[in-house]
Amino acid sequence: MILTRRTFLAGTGGLLALHPFSVSAQANQAHLRIMETTDIHVHVFPYDYYGDREVDTVGLARTASLIEEIRAEATNSMVFDNGDFLQGNPMGDYIAYERGMKEGDLHPVIEALNTLGIDASTLGNHEFNYGLDFLMKSLAGSNYPVVTANVLKTRGATPLEDDTLVPPYAILDREITDGAGETHPIRVGLIGFVPPQIMSWDRKHLDGNVEVRDILEAARAYVPQMREEGADLVIALSHSGIGAEGHEDMMENAAIPLAGVEGIDAILTGHSHLVFPGPDYADWPGLDNEAGTIGGIPGVMAGFWGSHMGLIDLMLERDGDGWRVASHDVEARPIFERGEDRSVTALTQSDEEILASVQQEHDETLAYIRRAVGKTDAPLHSYFALVADDPSVQIVSNAQTWYIAQMMQGTEHEGLPILSAAAPFKAGGRGGPEYYTDVPAGDVAIKNVADLYLYPNTVRAVRITGAQVKDWLERSAGAFNRIEAGAEDAPLLNADFPSYNFDIMDGVTYRIDLSQPSKFDREGEVINPEASRIVDLRYQGEPIDPAQEFIVATNNYRASGGGSFPGTGDTVVFEGPDTNRDVIVRYIVEQGTISPSADANWTFAPMDGTTAVFATGPAGAQYAETIEGVEIEPAGETEDGFALFRLRL
Asked: In three state form, how does the secondary structure of 1-31 look?
């Protein structure tokens, strides 16, 4: 049974079951087991709220059982959460938009983390999605310190003079038991970091209210101070992914250079929704997958939605009156395994006390997501969203156009042509062969709208030129590999290009010439200035005028520069108070019954005698013959459970 608040000292009665480190610890040594949860995104229950069904692949309640097993066998252990806990599924939206957070209310994910008895947490970028007031009311219920060093209310001359939003670090006084059974004091320092890009991603909530510093700038200032204050160990809670080995100012994924800051002993990371150590990071510069080190120190990244528990085993040795790390083991321990046939086997069961702590909010969320808001007379699915104009993206785009047309009335922008940019969010990839939108004809409920649009983005509009429209689409066309004329079954999709950056632009018509190289690389940098994949780009049947101005409806992430699309960042002319999801709901309510047929406003340019292959979910086969504008046929399946289709260009 998990206690509401565990003690650090687990006791020595279970030594026979301990990790080999504990058994081999000498009188001057102690074994400390550090556990991580990260990117929970409100997934406490093992439940898919979009599919309205139980699943074995997610859930803090499952991860908690792994943590309890470690605690039961460990002499010394600590648990930390690495951020992105407040937002990410319909329970998060229900609390933020329906129930609300009043003074004294307890957020369900905070209640679950309290019940788990974590020792500390940092903020993730998604903690800011619902605004600062919601965030601070939610954090008020935590029984543990929440630390982040690079988000400031006011900026000082140096980081040490900043007034940070939450404490930059905490030093926890604990007792640790050595190999001889003797207890000693130990001071464990925790410092947290979040990507500086929050100022763009949530500008509406943050601009004028907080500032950010570069992650390494903050670390280099605070870590020496933590050591001066007597921290024996310093652990970085880095809600910043594993990226480049070298440091760049204000970099988003700074885990490797951060690990090189003198005085940091171990690093817990996340944000990227990947697993380290593991094949996600094979042969990555600055990492050692075998040793489990990031920048030379022990580090771990534990997946997302509770899929894994990160575990760092440290063998500590007495160093005068303090402690130093002598050796380590690292692993990311999963809550499930997937068989060769893509079947899922649970490796642990839910902790009942964690479930009980949020049972009421879970039940309320189920009622919330099951409400019907309208009807659709045709299926809404995303199985072919990366290869043809798609009904699930079309509805999003239609709703954005409908909304922005109203918002432009009476403004200086009224009368300008309105375009709409939208991308598929659930399109397989790392999410697996079931990770697609699939809403049957009939009632459309809130859970279906959340499935169409995963994120609580807010609607924005930008004012750009026809030339910028073309470059926006050139950036989007990086989703595809270059294909030689006459090729047979060439791989179509660029595996490194995320589907949420494949923007379809409605209001214009165009074709994509796959014989051309991409003008932009994965990060949005121009690599082929003369390349032109976007051909026959027209507005109202006429070639688009590069100087003509357009209003483009999109979301706050894209409008503020997310994805590095031309025409974004400093072109915003409207910031809506409504989320894209809310706009879709209102659009469906007004329409009553929607007819989600794609208008095939974009296609691939013909390439005689050329074929390409792509993967999608097997359930998409039932819709293959209904896809307009492309000629596709079954082409087998992949080893990881996707269906293959052939595209005749």
From this structure: CCCCCCCCECCCCCHHHCCHHHHHCCCCEEE
Contact 585, 495 (CB under 8 A): no
Q: What is the per-residue pLDDT across 564-593, written as a single tens digit (0 to 9) for each?
A: 999 999 999 988 767 888 889 889 888 999
Rounded distance between C-alpha atoms, residue 568 and residue 563, angstroms: 9
Q: How far apart are CA 96 and CA 365, in angstroms?
A: 12
pLDDT at 23: 64
User: Residue 645 burial (CB < 10 Å; 0-12/13-18/19+)?
Assistant: buried
Give the containing element (helix H, strand E) for 160. none
**Model confidence over 258-293: pLDDT tens digits?**
999 999 999 999 998 899 999 989 999 999 999 999
Q: Which of 301-310, 374-383, 587-596 has the highest mean pLDDT?
A: 301-310
Does 8 score more than 80 pLDDT? no
Q: Are strands 120-122 and 146-147 parallel, antiparallel or unpaired?
A: parallel
Sheet containing 643-648, strands listed edge to edge, beginning at the edge strand earlier in sequence: 490-491, 611-616, 643-648, 632-637
Quick one: which of 318, 270, 323, 319 has its CA closest to 294? 270
Pair 233, 188: CB distance under 8 Å: yes
pLDDT, the chain, mean: 92
Question: Measured between alpha carbons, how far is 65 from 609 in angstroms, rounded to an integer?
Answer: 55
Let me know: does 244 contact 336? Beta carbons within 8 Å. Answer: no
Domain-by-domain residue ranges, the chain? 31-364, 371-648
- φ and ψ at residue 101, rounded to 5 degrees: -125, 105
Residues 555, 559, 565, 570, Cα dihedral to 10°: 180
Q: Does domain 31-364 have CATH number 1.20.58.100?
A: no
Question: Could you tell me which of 75, 4, 85 has the C-alpha nearest to residue 37?
Answer: 85
Per-residue pLDDT at 27: 80
Sign of torsion over alpha carbons 467, 468, 471, 477: negative
In degrees, rounded to 5, the angle at the alpha carbon of residue 273 between the alpha carbons of residues 269 and 276 is: 55
Output the pLDDT for position 5.
33
CA atoms within 13 A on the CB side of 529: 0
Contact criterion met (CB below 8 Å) for 443 and 565: no
> According to DSSP H, which parts of 377-479 are helical?
391-408, 446-452, 466-476
Q: For residue 375, which of 431, 470, 439, 430 has the smallest C-alpha distance?
A: 439
In the predicted model, is pLDDT for residue 20 greater than 80? no
How many CB atoms are located within 10 Å of the residue 317 CB?
A: 16
**What's the predicted TM-score (pTM) here?**
0.75
How far apart CA 242 and CA 301 sit, in angstroms, is 9
Contact 440, 384 (CB under 8 A): no
Q: What is the DSSP string of 343-387?
A: -EEESS---HHHHHHTHHHHHHHHHHHT-EEEEESS-EE-TTTTT
- Do 31-364 and 371-648 share a fold? no
For 530, which DSSP code? T
- Residue 465 to residues 356, 417, 468, 546, 632, Cα–Cα distance (Å): 54, 11, 5, 6, 35
The yes/no answer on whether domain 371-648 falls in CATH 3.30.930.10 is: no
Is cis: bond before 277, omega within 30 of 0?
Answer: yes
